[in-house]
Amino acid sequence: MLVVMRADATAEQIAAVCRHIESLGLRAHAIPGAQRTAIGITGNKGALEPSDLEVLEGVAEAIRVSKPYKLVSLEVKPEPTVVRVGRAAIGGGELAFIAGPCAVENREQLFRIADQVAATGAQLLRGGAFKPRTSPYAFQGLGEKGLAILAEARERFGLGIVTEAIDTESLALVEQYADMIQIGARNMQNYSLLRRAGQSRKPVLLKRGMAATLDEWLMAAEYVLSEGNYQVVLCERGVRTFSDHSRNTLDLSVVPAVKAVSHLPVIVDPSHGTGRRDRVLPLARAALAVGADGLIVEVHDQPEHAASDGPQSIYPRQLEQLMEQARRLAPLLERSAPGAAAGAGAHPAYGAGEGR
Amino acid sequence: MLVVMRADATAEQIAAVCRHIESLGLRAHAIPGAQRTAIGITGNKGALEPSDLEVLEGVAEAIRVSKPYKLVSLEVKPEPTVVRVGRAAIGGGELAFIAGPCAVENREQLFRIADQVAATGAQLLRGGAFKPRTSPYAFQGLGEKGLAILAEARERFGLGIVTEAIDTESLALVEQYADMIQIGARNMQNYSLLRRAGQSRKPVLLKRGMAATLDEWLMAAEYVLSEGNYQVVLCERGVRTFSDHSRNTLDLSVVPAVKAVSHLPVIVDPSHGTGRRDRVLPLARAALAVGADGLIVEVHDQPEHAASDGPQSIYPRQLEQLMEQARRLAPLLERSAPGAAAGAGAHPAYGAGEGR
Amino acid sequence: MLVVMRADATAEQIAAVCRHIESLGLRAHAIPGAQRTAIGITGNKGALEPSDLEVLEGVAEAIRVSKPYKLVSLEVKPEPTVVRVGRAAIGGGELAFIAGPCAVENREQLFRIADQVAATGAQLLRGGAFKPRTSPYAFQGLGEKGLAILAEARERFGLGIVTEAIDTESLALVEQYADMIQIGARNMQNYSLLRRAGQSRKPVLLKRGMAATLDEWLMAAEYVLSEGNYQVVLCERGVRTFSDHSRNTLDLSVVPAVKAVSHLPVIVDPSHGTGRRDRVLPLARAALAVGADGLIVEVHDQPEHAASDGPQSIYPRQLEQLMEQARRLAPLLERSAPGAAAGAGAHPAYGAGEGR
Amino acid sequence: MLVVMRADATAEQIAAVCRHIESLGLRAHAIPGAQRTAIGITGNKGALEPSDLEVLEGVAEAIRVSKPYKLVSLEVKPEPTVVRVGRAAIGGGELAFIAGPCAVENREQLFRIADQVAATGAQLLRGGAFKPRTSPYAFQGLGEKGLAILAEARERFGLGIVTEAIDTESLALVEQYADMIQIGARNMQNYSLLRRAGQSRKPVLLKRGMAATLDEWLMAAEYVLSEGNYQVVLCERGVRTFSDHSRNTLDLSVVPAVKAVSHLPVIVDPSHGTGRRDRVLPLARAALAVGADGLIVEVHDQPEHAASDGPQSIYPRQLEQLMEQARRLAPLLERSAPGAAAGAGAHPAYGAGEGR
């Protein structure tokens, strides 16, 4: 922490600030300058807030020098974390792909789409059973019934399951059925939910809040790690800005920013990030090119009938294209991408032809 | 809903869109234009999303014409709602003032401050027992013990109690002890919590999320009303923008914007809205001048020792000034403001002198 | 400037940074900490940029401690500046009111409105002769002919003239005809124009850019002052955010923030700040309540026929209300407001009745 | 344009709006709905503003259906524009690379860097002679002398020259010496400058303003085209948001958004977009992957001594890497990238070794 005194601060005010700092068990280092004095503080273990000092007389500003997070930091753990979910090792050499419909609508729909997702080589299946909706009158998901369908799809198609928990009750169910617990953007600062996720033994996918700074996002992850669950994957999904040509502004520069300070893997959601099907592939390519460890993408074979998010869901044939482009792009990034499934189209009952 | 066709849309595409709309049980009204055709839709009860139509061929854009909220709307209930909490009638002729420390720290601290709050004429006492903190390592509040202290303060000082619930567990406790349940900005889209608040019989103070549009905020209130609890007060507390001279950007123009579409009362929090003690009074005056139904303000007699938010807490003597200014301002706004307590300073044990 | 070294910086890197700082003629003060070392710099006259140091090895971050502006700062001139324009003394005890149409459309229109503006007691008349328009196809103003009409209105109605210059050519004309040169939000960082305004002997009204921080705005003013023109009034007119209920987000908290660091007067434009007539009066009251030195407001007697900005222009009768409210509010703010003109309605030819 | 009436609008108000529309020479199409009536307008040539109608009684909202731009639109010119500058054909099959120092500091510096830029295969050289600086006390560029050095570099190294004009005076010089006129972000709505650029016969590089929507950016380009200069290249360089981990938020999703509505080429500036050297390469790759027609990058061989923007300037060896990556990425994007210069290192006097 650095305390900047006002230009007109008196010697007595400066001395008083130093005494106050030392009364807290810390050391104060006064640095007299031409215009004003600054006071460096050492020995601070993180409990001190700039605002604790800004209330003192003669203080112009207190500036935090150290970061508030610890467990998520590269300084604590310099090697990258790899989070294993189903066949995927997120943060490792092979890029991870999570694909599937916005919501589980019924067994038929999910199986049809899961079959096609598996064929493309994507390792993980997404699908919401608990949906946080802006309107109380909109479809809220199938709940536990949806989770059971997802679990069945895992057995049939060999795909790990990623699905969202929206409160502690649904989290208890999600951790039973799924392979990875998603915490949505709206719940990024729902600390009770984060703590509960930290007590789970399943990996956590933590989306960035719509107005979250990098530090706040990492502090949300710190909540999960602080409860003992170190298997956290971050997910950028667009932030809210004045810009109105896309639903959100996908902040791809946060990917190298995360890598510069944290060991946690980070993936990107170009579906929510753009809100439009025709933008998903370009932004998916860009997300991989910038260094993301993987992607989460909404896929639907009949988006015009989807219960939610139809316009941003790509078709299965577009997911094939995306995976094919990822395979070509991966070597340039010193990564690999999963191959198309050997048994692609092996489940003839599930519409190898439909919607492609 | 209005569907705007692309300039190069074919007659067949236009006809297909019309057929699709009518297959949904709605009516389509094609409006051929010089450059392009638009199609108006009537009979829409709110289930249709612009994105449901934007996926059709030849469609450039679908524009929502009606608003998604209903129960919070002036169109459903043209007369203003008045929410009664303790001695206050928020949204009525008398302005409402909620004041107190950020967090309940101990019985002594709360009583000392409550005594001084009561003396100023403010009707309601705030104080957090469950604190949503950015860091898992920061003080998280006294929990139920804090609620018990608040309830005791109600009896002693005659102040209604407003305190935050951060999850369904804490809400069950808050509704037992307090007079009004606060839902914080970070939980504005925690829909499970909103539904649970909607099932309570205590009034709800709903803060605006840091990146929430007016419509999203009203939809969050709609969640509460849709469960049967019509006693909701909205609270503007600053939004997140690029602007860095204050902690948040207090959006005072949202106050008349709420009044233009909703019957719900709206108050302003200049403490979180600015993050600095020396900005609270000017912004408090401005909030009343713009038409707010009241204020919620953080007050502490020893802010340099406050467990949280010290730098934005005003001193009790500043609350007195604020109330005095409110009394002078109220007639201009065709309102009244509560008078200073007749028994001001009547509890000599609680530091009438201290910190003033 | 404070240089924060990385936790893993070597003693040699720290020494190298100190040597570099001293090679620039400055003094380095190393402050060893538990986790990392920080280096304070003194003797810096403002030429050093954080980025000059962030390129050195082992440096985590360089933090600016002093502010980049000088002449606009309270530290240089502690007493408030009062800018005299016509009958107004902006920044003095009497609040200043600038009112008039968005654009000068013709002599009849301007005179009709000026007559009514004068009757309300407002001291200054606004009206654009050079209009910066988003579309090249929109009405761009009457140019010098518009300025001549404004100058004529000054003589007839006793109102000082405030009008915008959009480039150095128009500025040369504006300074001939008008009493105050307005620099618009879009030109806040048009440094050639700012320098030229700094060479003028007429006062300058400098609007805040739509995405300008407080520091950038003050640095724009610094450009004007640095050329020798100290007569600058700042004007907040709304910033661009995600919020969509008003055209811009009026940032009223910037008013006390300006007052805390600068001696320059600051006024508010609730017309552009909201974009809607029905929001102008509430926000005008709030702007005065927060401490603004005055207002600039768009007024039109036939807004439905205005060449631009009709929907945000208030009617003359609303300006009367606004002035009346300002008179009631002023004493509470330890200010005064100008009285209605004794000779109100004295120019019967100019529609005392029309549009009221 | 679509006019949405209030739910409580009377039949007479609806009729009055229709009459008003027809009095303007347009056609009104009333669409009665269950809750409210909407009125479609056809025949509108772009002169009508939503606000012209929102002032009428009973109107809730007027929504623009057509876009305000014309000449920049794909509807007017469906085939992509290719802008030729020096050896580059921006918007064609070969990706375009503009590289060089932030500012021309002296002949030695520019020649040293230009030599290395040429060696990498980049087609165009950037370098500021007129610098828009936040502070009036900062280095403002060499002016015409800098332009002369740039022109000399063109002859010697075969690189087309791109440099910024900040006012009409500097534009007159820039068009004499350079091959492409850059309009900076701060001047994106300096309409006098845009008009003057439109009268030039040199191509224009138009940077997006820090708070500009896509429509506003395209309207700024429309200003240039409307004066007869169709050679415009758009450049995304980051927008201003709350996000604080990078200097600006690079909005890569705007690239496909531009392509969806305009025929103009669009390039990306990852240097200003991120403000940090270590972010430039990842974001440069992402910009190409998302579909940009090229890049503009700041390069300096001694960034620690650069007169400006040192920390975001990459080293010449990093530009080599960037170009190499672009060559590997291009085929995936159905593009090509220029090869390294055959004569790379052919100018031994200019530091083939230095800084690499």
Write a structural description:
In chain A, 33% of the residues lie in helices and 17% in strands. Mean pLDDT of chain A is 90; it is low at 344-356. Chain A starts with a strand and ends in a 27-residue tail after the last helix. The first copy, chain A, is elongated, with a radius of gyration of 24 Å. The first copy, chain A, has helices spanning 11-23, 50-54, 107-120, 144-157, 168-177, 191-198, 214-226, 254-261, 270-274, 277-290, 316-329, and strands at 2-5, 27-32, 37-42, 59-63, 83-85, 88-90, 96-100, 124-126, 160-164, 180-183, 204-207, 232-236, 266-268, 294-298. In chain A, β12 (232-236), α8 (254-261) and β13 form a beta-alpha-beta unit. Chain A contains eleven helices and 14 strands. The longest helix of chain A has 14 residues, at 107-120. By secondary structure, chain A is an alpha/beta fold. Chain A has two domains: 2-63, Alpha-Beta Plaits; 83-350, TIM Barrel (Alpha-Beta Barrel). Chains in contact: A-B, A-C, A-D, B-C, B-D, C-D. Chain A binds chain B through residues 46-47, 51-52, 54-56, 68, 132-137, 166-170, 186-187, 189-193, 195, 209-211, 216, 219, 222-223, 226-227, 240, 277, 303-304, 309-312, and chain B through 46-47, 51-52, 54-56, 68, 132-137, 166-170, 186-187, 189-193, 195, 209-211, 216, 219, 222-223, 226-227, 240, 277, 303-304, 309-312.
